[in-house]
Amino acid sequence: MIDVITYKKIVDSVNFIDTSRPVKMCFTDSIDPVSRNAMAKINTKIKGRKLVGVMFCNPHSKYCQNEILNHLNYFHHRSGENINFFCCGYGADWPDDKFPDQVVVTTVDGAEWSYSDQSLVSIISEFERKTEWRYSGENELLLLDVGPGSNDNIKINNAIVCNLEKMQKDSAFTSVRAFFEKIIRYTNDNNDPSAWGYSDSQGLNIAKEWLKDAVLGLLPKTLASTYKATENYAIKKI
What we know:
single chain, alpha+beta, five-stranded mixed beta sheet, three-stranded antiparallel beta sheet, 37% helix
């Protein structure tokens, strides 16, 4: 498992992935043996493009504690070989002086995981600078269709933001576990870009809509129709 403490670590991790191969759910930092071992396992199947999730979840909120933090170990083992989830602001094996505000918040795969507001805020700022996304302050998941980029940036082909708190209030899912399970099953069943529901030959507009449509397809039909009719705050392209 790999932790994410800076935007650059996400860039390095995504660009490290040989996009001709599948990937394990990861949370990134490349400085420790655990990270290096995890990076060595990123040897899998998809050509040219990859679906990744970037989570912004503050453990000081009850929602994060109940819906996400207590289940990180499960998500790690359940995610399979076809999607990476980067959990921003979290990491393992940090030295005592890594961040002045760091605190141990959970255990994943037998290792203590720490969290830092300073780290999370720096990643939020970088994503806001490089995309149209603006952080709501709540627990959010960015789903990104990415390809190999530059040394300083990720090549994002499509991107949507899912406000997990609002989606649950709207009864889009009963729990984050249930929603992630659907995403994991979707990626396991569609582990080749040609099966992701998009095709460049279908036209630019369809290609741009595939990711949002794919996520809407995981939700109750009535709510999915409502979300699709408007650029809803809960699920929208960025």
